[in-house]
Amino acid sequence: ITGDMAYTIDFSKQKMEFASVTGFSHNHGAWSLDGKTMQVMCLERADAMTGNYYGKDETIKGTIRIEHGTSALLALRVQGARRGYYAGLHQGNLVIAKVDKGEFSILHSIPYTTAEGEEHLLDFSVQGTNLSCTIDEKTKIEAIDCTLGYGMVGCSCFLGGRVAFGNLDITQKL
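Above: the chain's sequence. Below: its structure in token form.
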């Protein structure tokens, strides 16, 4: 199989195998399936990654619901646990962030108030060096960064808590 990809991960069709959700590689956290969502409970950071490791221009779109905590992020161009771009809700802000050499740095953020249990639609994309994140199809932030040129896509929680991620629409150009 070669070429660009466009697909949806429907969590109602996934299964648990060896304490993991099918199709994902997990880094920390207790991951599970609950109907139409993939959920994580964690004390610190937790990640679930999928897709082609060599994806370049990418988009990931899906719902997030923070049940407890202050962090729920979608991820692009992830190259393992120590490198990637992340966007979503983090400590009362809508953020675009980067992890490079294990260091978390925020590239752009704006205040964004939400309550535990509220569901939000995130749309995060990277085209070349341009990153953008839209929440609930109305509020958009952007950043420019040239550090990471390729990687996988996924879901993350950076500060501990419980988060539910809804079905994911993913595109990756190689």
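The chain has a mean pLDDT of 96.
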